[in-house]
């Protein structure tokens, strides 16, 4: 049996809104602590802003890890390089098509409605390295895999994976 193992890590582009929220909450925490010395209820506001700043900083830096093992692609989210959360698992047998995002092979799927999930960096580079996977006929999943991961999936399902 052909068992292969490929691992790929992609850092998501940090959003400006989340960074701004983190700075605002930290400033609100500092002002609440200083104001709480004069007016006690502001300490409650400072504590709430501090908790919000903690959770905003956890989600400000996110990475996706793709893992291909034995006909299965699993996606994990890594928050702030400290916490890991399993996102999804995809079986290669249920993939309809796996092609580059701008491929002509995706033209027949453009007018269909899909539930879209984006596990890429969010950056359309030149050339665009993102791939689209139509999964189970009703899901559109956007990846940014390495060449080794694409080759591993192509070796198992050669008629479903396109490289152009």
Tags for this model:
alpha+beta, four-stranded antiparallel sheet, 30% helix, elongated
Give a description of the structure.
The chain has three helices and eight strands. The chain has 164 residues and is of the alpha+beta class. The chain is elongated and about 70 Å long. The two termini are 28 Å apart. The relative contact order is 0.17.
Give the SSE map:
Elements (H helix, E strand, L loop, with lengths): L4 E7 L4 H21 L5 H19 L1 E8 L2 E8 L3 E9 L3 E6 L14 E4 L12 E5 L3 E5 L3 H10 L8
Distance between the termini: 28 Å
**Rg over alpha carbons:** 21 Å
Average per-residue pLDDT, rounded, comes to: 90
Helix content: 25-40%
Short description:
The protein is an alpha+beta fold and 164 residues long.
